[in-house]
Amino acid sequence: MSLLESLSLPDARRRLRASFSASDTPALVVLVVLTVGIVVAGLVAYEWVPTTTLVLPLIIGSLWLGPRTLPWFTVLVCLGVCVMLLAPEVNLNARSAVRTGTIFAVATIILFTSFRRSRLGVSGPRGESMFVDLRDRISRQGVLPELPDRWSVEAVVRSAGGTQFAGDFVVARRSVDDRLDVVLVDVSGKGVEAGSRSLFLSGAFNGIVSALPGEEFLPAANTYLMGQDWDEGFATAVHLHLDLATGDFELRKAGHPPAVWLHAGSGRWTVVASDGPVLGLIADADFECVRGRLAAGDGLMLFTDGLVETATRDISLGIDKLAGLGEGMLQRGFDGAAERTVSAITHTNDDRALIVVHRRW
After folding, report:
1. What is the rounded distance in angstroms from the CA atom of residue 276 to the CA atom of residue 252?
2. Domain with 260 in it: what CATH number?
3. Among 26, 79, 143, 156, whose CB has the most other CB atoms within 10 angstroms?
4. PPM-type phosphatase domain spans which residues (predicted)?
5. Is residue 148 one of the residues assigned to a domain?
6. Contact status, residue 242 vs residue 249, Cβ threshold 8 Å
7. 87 forms bridges with which residues in the sheet?
């Protein structure tokens, strides 16, 4: 049986797409043919196909070709420009010199960009696919587990500038003994600048929270971050360890804003604060534990400073405003409350994240 016969049609299509996405050879062949065609057409009818037409394959090549093939293709286009100048209809004057100089300037910019991309080794669709994959990995690691009917948990993360990469991320895990661990982390920096560190730490913290008891998570995360030796290698975090059977919880934080506890019985809220240094700054740090029990109807909000602090507003005033919005959850319900709350707060030039845990009646 031949290889093609042994493969099903979907498998063949998948492998074909993979082979094309893994190499820019097909795109290079098409662009070379297009460039040669333009050069030939320019020699025959320069009035209709001037040298500036070669900017088209040059721009397409900068989008589709990798850093290894793009410089050679750029040189080919520049040679094509020189060949087209030999056309009988070409008048070598100031106008043609400006056109030619413009093309060479564009080629120089593309070459410079290609050399910068060579540090990463990918560009174009493959580079975009890589970043999309990184974004999806962060999202998957922050997926909240399914909870019993009497519990709900929602999380919303918004990055600075509306990008898909943020310095805030969520790690969540439900154990076999019906306990929930939720960690909200705020990495130093914001937006795309902190996206790479967020990806790195989200994977590491996900492994730590899955392997260690609740009281050991923040010390282990601090030790891990201390060993990275980053210039801005610090982060704040808040860790909730919740018993889904009884509602008992333990809250620990590391340089993070306090949590807000919404009491359904009284309709009021309290701040749940504990003491602990920022992760990655002090070795062998201690993190204070605050314990409590969520009664039926109660809610707990975990958030980052980008949600409550601005350049013109103190963090305590921001917490008061957030808690006021939280009181509305007790009246209108907790379904979709995290999204409504984040949308109701004025956008800041910082990443924002909110987690709402609710024990239903």
Report:
1. 8
2. 3.60.40.10
3. 156
4. 148-359
5. yes
6. yes
7. none
Domain check: are 242 and 152 in the same one? yes
Percent with pLDDT over 90 in the chain: 55
Point out the least confidently predicted range of 77-91, 182-196, 325-339: 182-196
Quick one: 216 and 85 in the same domain? no
Q: In what order do the strands lie in the sheet with 290-293?
A: 168-174, 179-187, 235-243, 248-254, 290-293
Of the candidates 140, 141, 155, the residue with the CA atom closest to the CA atom of residue 358: 155
Q: What is the pLDDT of residues 35-47, one digit of tens each?
A: 999 999 999 998 8
Strands across the sheet containing 299-303? 151-158, 352-359, 299-303, 259-263, 268-272
* Closest listed residue to residue 153, CA positions, set 5, 289, 294, 334: 334
What's the Rg (C-alpha) of the chain? 28
Select the more confidently predicted residue: 159 or 323: 323
- The residue from 94, 121, 148 where one domain ends is 121
Residue-number span of the structural domain to which 352 is assigned: 134-359
Q: Could you tell me the two tokens for 134?
A: 């990184």
Of 72, 88, 121, the residue at which a domain comes to its end is: 121
8 Å CB contact between 327 and 267: yes
Q: 170: which strand partners?
A: 184
Separation of alpha carbons 203 and 323, rounded Å: 31
Mean pLDDT of the chain: 85
Domains contained in the chain, number: 2
Q: Which tokens sit at 137?
A: 């990995």
Instruction: Give the number of C-alpha atoms closer than 13 A to the C-alpha of residue 274, restricted to the C-beta side.
Output: 22
- Identify the three-state secondary structure at position 54: helix
In the block, residue with structure tokens 């902190």: 194
Backbone φ, ψ for residue 299 (5° rounding): -140, 160
